[in-house]
Write a structure and sequence with these properties.
The complex is a heterodimer. Chain A is mainly beta. Chain A has strands at residues 4-7, 10-14, 19-25, 32-38, 45-51, 56-59, 62-67, 72-77, 86-93, 98-100, 104-109. In chain A, strands 2, 4, 5, 9, 10 and 11 form a six-stranded mixed beta sheet that branches. In chain A, strands 1-3-8-7-6 form a five-stranded antiparallel beta sheet, with no helix packed on it. The chains are: A mainly beta, B mainly beta.
């Protein structure tokens, strides 16, 4: 089955710096790659997603890049703010299943 | 607020028991997905229903079952509960019939199940 590896598991950055989280997947049939932000005790919330026919997508301070050949995709957060502190999950999906990464706990230090 | 509702918010039960978790999707959404989030196994996709029929299946145990009713709400039934079933159970909904990889999903607030 699909295997999604996510790194790092924890990440501390100073407010204003950038944060990068990387995921690799194994199933070449995967075609949709969402990223979720989950605050403690809350629901996962979609923050950005990318489909397999696109290499990069940006939404204000958040961007995602996808390299289908290498089977990896990354989340980039610029100008981090304390409210960005949360656990971030990547996911790899096709039409039949979705597999999540193990999560990255991001701490933004004021 | 995503518009997806789940009840109950918390559930405490004993090993061997059976429980039912309920989910109401966003207005207009026809697909419901169930997920389990535990410390051991992370976030796992269990099953998807679309307009009353099973659409996709993930890592759902045989002791677990789900259904979607004509009014589109869904129930997840967990039986012969074990300590390891303690987890947060989320449902999510989306508008269309495509599998997990075709639609943006909106998560509910979750049901925290504790098995003692």
């Amino acid at each position: 089955g699909e295997n999604v590896e996510q790194h790092p598991s924890t990440l501390s950055v100073q407010e204003g710096d950038s944060a990068v989280i990387k995921c690799t997947y194994s199933d070449s049939a995967s075609n949709y790659f969402p990223w979720y932000k989950q605050e403690l005790g809350k629901r996962p919330q979609l923050i950005i997603d990318i489909r397999s026919n696109v290499g990069e997508k940006k939404d204000q301070r958040i961007a995602v890049t996808l390299n289908k050949t290498a089977k990896h995709f990354s989340l980039h957060i610029t100008e981090t703010q304390p409210e960005d502190s949360a656990v971030y999950f990547c996911a790899s999906t096709d039409y039949q299943k979705v597999t999540f990464g193990t999560g990255t706990k991001l701490q933004v230090i004021p | 607020d995503s518009g997806v509702t789940q009840t109950p918010k918390h559930l405490i039960t004993a090993t061997g028991q059976r429980v039912t978790l309920r989910c109401s999707p966003r207005s207009g959404d026809l697909s419901v997905y169930w997920y389990q989030q535990s410390l051991d196994q992370g976030l796992q996709f269990l099953i998807q229903y679309y307009n009353g029929e099973e659409r996709a299946k993930g890592n759902i145990l045989e002791r677990f079952s789900a259904q979607q009713f004509p009014d589109l709400h869904s129930e997840l039934n967990l039986s012969s509960l074990e300590l390891g079933d303690s987890a947060l159970y989320f449902c999510a909904s989306s508008p269309t019939s495509g599998g997990p990889g075709t639609d943006t999903q909106y998560f509910g607030p979750g049901t925290r199940l504790t098995v003692l």
